Amino acid sequence: MSLQDISAASSSSAPPEDSTAPATPAAVEAAKVPLGRQMMAVPGLLPGLTIITLLVVWELVTSIFPIPSFILPAPTRIGGAIDAVPADRWFDHVWATLRVAMIGYVISICIALPVAIALTRSKVVSACLYPLLVVIQSTPVVAIAPIIIVILGSGDAPRVTITFLITFFPLVVSMTTGMMATPRELIELSQSLKAPPWREFTQIRIPYAIPYIFSGLKISITLAVIGAVVAEFVASSQGLGFFIQFSTSNFKLPQAWLGLGFLVLMSLTLFNLVVLVQRIFFPWSMPKDER
Amino acid sequence: MSLQDISAASSSSAPPEDSTAPATPAAVEAAKVPLGRQMMAVPGLLPGLTIITLLVVWELVTSIFPIPSFILPAPTRIGGAIDAVPADRWFDHVWATLRVAMIGYVISICIALPVAIALTRSKVVSACLYPLLVVIQSTPVVAIAPIIIVILGSGDAPRVTITFLITFFPLVVSMTTGMMATPRELIELSQSLKAPPWREFTQIRIPYAIPYIFSGLKISITLAVIGAVVAEFVASSQGLGFFIQFSTSNFKLPQAWLGLGFLVLMSLTLFNLVVLVQRIFFPWSMPKDER
Amino acid sequence: LDQVTFQLDWLPGGDKSPIYVCIEQGFCEEAGIEVTIEQGRGSSEAVTKLATGISDIGTAGLGALMAATITEDVPVTAVMSYFNQGPHAFYTLEGNGIATVEDVRGMTIATSPFTSSNVYLPLVLADLGMTEEDIVLNKMDPGALGPTLMTGQADAIIAWVVDITRYTTQAEEAGKDIVVIPWSTAGLELYSASVVANDTFLAERPDVARRFLEAYQRSIVFASENPSEAAEAVVSVVPELDLAAIEGGVNDAMLLVFNEVTEADGLGAFEAGRLAATWERVAAAQGFDVDALDPETIVDRSFLPTN
Amino acid sequence: MPNNAAIAFENVGQVFATDTGPLEALRGVSTSIARHQFVAVLGPSGCGKSTLLRLTSGLLKPTSGSVKVFDLEVTDPRDDVGIVFQKPTLLPWANTIDNVLFPLKHRGGFVAKDDRQRAHDLVKMVGLEGFETRLPNELSGGMQQRVGIARALLMDPDILLMDEPFSALDALTREEMGFELLRIWQERPKTVLFITHSISEAVLLADRVIVMTDRPGAILEDLKVPLDRPRTVETTTSKVMHEFAGYLRSLLLKRAA
Amino acid sequence: MPNNAAIAFENVGQVFATDTGPLEALRGVSTSIARHQFVAVLGPSGCGKSTLLRLTSGLLKPTSGSVKVFDLEVTDPRDDVGIVFQKPTLLPWANTIDNVLFPLKHRGGFVAKDDRQRAHDLVKMVGLEGFETRLPNELSGGMQQRVGIARALLMDPDILLMDEPFSALDALTREEMGFELLRIWQERPKTVLFITHSISEAVLLADRVIVMTDRPGAILEDLKVPLDRPRTVETTTSKVMHEFAGYLRSLLLKRAA
Lengths: 291, 291, 307, 257, 257
Ligand SMILES: Nc1ncnc2c1ncn2[C@@H]1O[C@H](COP(=O)(O)OP(=O)(O)OP(=O)(O)O)[C@@H](O)[C@H]1O
Ligand SMILES: Nc1ncnc2c1ncn2[C@@H]1O[C@H](COP(=O)(O)OP(=O)(O)OP(=O)(O)O)[C@@H](O)[C@H]1O
Ligand SMILES: [Mg+2]
Ligand SMILES: [Mg+2]
Fold this sequence. Notes:
The complex is a heteropentamer, with 2 copies of chain A, 1 copy of chain C and 2 copies of chain D. Chain A contains 12 helices and no strands. Chain A is an all-alpha fold. Chain C is of the alpha/beta class. Chains in contact: A-B, A-C, A-D, A-E, B-C, B-D, B-E, D-E. The site of one magnesium ion (MG) has 4 residues of chain E, from α1.
């Protein structure tokens, strides 16, 4: 998994230059300024370069200006903090966060889908359920954390629940929007076949909603990581979120920043995985030049 | 603004019963079980009933089971806490949160739109920018709060920034997805007219993306409130978030719950406003029976 | 072995060293107790967890317990004092022109939003004839306090004396010198962090509670005498921590445990006068009726080891 | 209504409610179509032909009157009806074969090897051999339309509703497809409601031609086609056909007067 | 190529790359269309007519050969070209008038009262009076197509590319629209490339008829229409027209052999 797949998350309307492909005028114009496009050809080059550039600028800024390391440590100094903690502890923290994020995310998807279907199917259900969803979404997790902990104890359960609560709403909203945006013709095609109603969802509305669903999945995967981290702030003794908070409160900032780095890397990787899943399983749902 | 507008956020595929409207068979079936649908006719009835039911159940549960009030106070007890704080203080807190949430949200929209356009227009920009966006999105705000505060001081600025950071990504992702999902025919129609390229966005891609954009706006408006609350946890001495945390840390729990109630009410209202804006300005972007 | 869940009121650090000493030095085991540590996120959260029985015994601010008792009547009782002075202090830099608490008049002070120090601040100021109007108070994330002080955005910050070593290290990096002005120097006398326990635990397993407190007290003494070994005990459980920093933290914390008050009343004691004074301060600060609670009802001295 | 009517319209009216006011699309349509009859519908653009077809399919309920299929009031789509929509209405994510097989999959039937073979045969019949695995957006307009035709034929429905199915086809393909349709209809008799703008096509294929008036659509004339079966390429040049087509043309032109 | 050629194809070939392999749509198409000429294109479904039109419009670049418009290689859409797409391609959120006015708005022209008047006239011309404020999904198939025609005519382009513009219309409307098109073409001469499946329509309207072979599309015959201008309703029944149409028909049928 590398950074190249990020680019798949977006594209221009112009197809790539390919001697046998239909080229639109936009592509022809692009041929005049080919540097960027040539670089696109090497997978991961551009995103990689961007991040490297950022790190270099950061290093330079911190070495030229007298920025104290407790405000913004230099990347090299952050990198040096890797020794501060044994490798297996790093692994434990990463794994704890990843585990909670993934379990919460998967549960969220599994519940969001039927809920979105119910909301799409019935206006009555929708009228009853939507306000509750907004209520849940707008309740700050930190405020109800004590209840969650008291009810669910102190294993993974409260953290998974918090992650679930944070990722759920965006998924439901995008799934519902997508299913409701299905063109009337396709719905009528389904109705005219007098199929069992749930097939209208599995074979028409859900496939049609795939771009919407993946838009929600992309938003939610980063929220899942955030959710796990927030949960660790609130209740945990391991995980990257705990580690960052812990390091910060002990004034060990390079180490906290390194934790942040791992976190960001985890998010990027998971995000790219979602993009990859879309590309592999639903190529038709992406612009043609992205498959 | 009442709750009825929530229902507009979703619908069944069946049109409402209207003697002059084309009725699909689904509508005919619904006529056999009309109670729910009859209730739909009274605006706000169903969402209101749902919330009232919830409160009643909550009251009953807390009075029947011996749930300590420091875990879950009864609604009546929470309501009683209204006197704990003078009305103008309540107003100050609500206004502080509302202000930050709204400013952050509006800035977020204003920046997300051009960014989404840039991501849609150019694959190179997209390859460079997307990883940065994911990095920003996946950085827990709490972890970088010190930098934000040191850089931005202690006015509204850091809080607005935090709100912005939290709401930005969902907006960009949904806007970009929508603009990229625009059918090729419509893009070609635009290209064939040889219009200035930005009009492809203003007159084709953005109108087409309206359902996606509103999906993002709905997700982000609740996130904006959450963002303002989180920001108040990090840097503030007023606002509902501050109030809740403050009350909790002083063990004034009914008062904290009441703050939570105001927060939820604010979220619901703002969410419904977004739905209302869509219904008034972009009726064609909603299912026909919802206009 | 008897199982006991020990509730911290915050993340591990030097000031939390006794429980780690208890485990690592085998004091708890010798007392026939196996301890599980439950980490905390503030005194209120710790009290809630103790009240619901998630944990049996732990540390929490006495002020928080008082507030919780008067508002919610939580089934939690204080059994031993830990910090017999308020840990609250102003931190400022050499050259900022602040030498005593009185000097903060007109200064910009940064504090974190939810620290219990904020509650006592008006009292300290009032003792000196000031109100919060006389200073500029900025509330911000605790992590931002140090940077704000070092960059000159605040003239002083409010923090606990257990953090002297940490802030000193940070100031050194910025080439500055820290000055710490504890509020106790301005006459704020109170118990703060204390050992508190779930009432059911105390009622059903009083013997375990007693044995635990004895082992815990032994650990405190050990930590104050052997700060570096105490720090090692913490770090061996929490390797993310830095030995030198923790040792500093242990030393800083022990100033609040062993001092002239300890000499007068003994380790872990709740002296009636000081307890009443603490309640008066809490009541005044949070707007409670002083008569609404007899502070004696929230303490139970019967579990204290007789030494 | 006679018992052997496959489709019966009784005083059917349809008024659409729109944001900009009501629109009367159909008014007082009464007729019935016998089992296994092939009926063509001709009429000016916008006169309500597609609306009539949607009413028959059960996708739309008439605002007045009633529509019966096999003596049962239509309240719901039925599973013995196959529809070719005016727009191709293909699933954009499915290739040709999958689009043709879709009714089977959608109704939950198990897609047997046999069905797959039949789908391939139908694709071949509509001249799309070699395009089995292409997506709709890789097909020309006429090719998409033919996929829609193959799809409707897959389930071998009792009633076939076709809305200008051959409109995007060239003359030759159109004729070929017409004869294929007749062949299928003769081999496995079914009731066909066939909307078209081609007078000669209507005459060549149908037993009966219904000519509709301008909006609000009503039945102007309902004529039996005076041609024997089987119809062949020769029929297309026969004098009877020519005359009858001429008469229909004059009917359709008359509305202008 | 002569200097007065409005459109010139030089050995144009088009191969589409698809997931399931390349597909040759056009092969060696060379011809040129003189300024103000009205050229109809006939050919079997899927032979590459729409592709040819898209190449001319600049929406597609040929994989071999070149397409020139007014002696300039086409690399981009031009603003003097109006297109009627095979699908109506209307903006679903805009009503009839706004859809017709869209080219003007989209190019950024100020929509004057005058333009609005012209749009109304065009809507009337295509027979949609009374439907000005309806949304596309409230129009019938043929009505949508007519909106697309009105839209292409609004900018009064030098070159008009029309892809089966009348395919969803009934015979009468079709004829009327054809004559309207001729009238406009005569009043304000323009070069027209007109794809159709109706042989008689091609003959009635065009100066020249290009007949294409089956895929990969190439030019089978390129014929001048032996009919004088102006063409009237009488022309439709003339013997010359009949014979020429018959010849074209035989050409198109021949491919089957
Ligand atoms: N969903 C709808 N909402 C409002 N009006 C509609 C709707 N569907 C059709 N109409 C109107 O009903 C009339 C008949 O439409 P219909 O599609 O049945 O015509 P048609 O005979 O099929 O025309 P064509 O030959 O052009 O396809 C038209 O005037 C159209 O504007
Ligand atoms: N975007 C595309 N990708 C792949 N193949 C395509 C594409 N567009 C067209 N084709 C193929 O090119 C060939 C010609 O298509 P085109 O649309 O030009 O045909 P046409 O002559 O307009 O047919 P019709 O009369 O049916 O509209 C067809 O075989 C089609 O499958
Ligand atoms: Mg129709
Ligand atoms: Mg075509």
